[in-house]
Structures are given as structure tokens and as C-alpha cells.
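Thought: the user wants the 3D structure for the chain below. I'll pass the sequence to the structure tool as-is, report back what it returns, then summarize two notable features.
Action: structure_tool
Action Input:
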Amino acid sequence: MVSVEGMEPSFGALLTGLVINLFWFALVLVAVYFVVRAAVTSALRRAGVITPASAAALDREDEAHRRAIDDERRPEA
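Observation:
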């Protein structure tokens, strides 16, 4: 690559490139997380580890945790 004097990228251009790259990296990480989670859940269901009854119980437990967290965040009257 030929280097031209005085053509170095500005700090703003470097920072913009970094932010764009971090955005795409985070987007790919989130996509990979959901794909892996779906694959693991599907495999566990096929293996019989997760049944409809156990899935419903987990959903109820998750909802109870969400409500407890919401109650803690609610300001005192």
C-alpha cells in the first residue's frame, strides 16, 4: 500500500469505524446467542428433558421472578 503523507485518518473517522464494528459484533453475538439457545432447547425437547409440563412450570417461575423484581423496583407509597 502506498502511503501518502498527510492522509492519516482523523480521530473521528477511527472512532466512527470502531463504533460501527462494535455494533456489528454485538449484533452477531446476539444472533448467535438466539440460534444456539433455540438449538439447545430443541435438542432438549427431542431428548425428553423438557416436557410441556416442565416448560410451563419454568414459565410460571420466570413470571414470579419478574413480578418480584418489579415489586422491588416499585417506589414505596
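Final Answer: Structure generated. Residues 60 and 66 are 10 Å apart (CA to CA). The chain has two helices and no strands.
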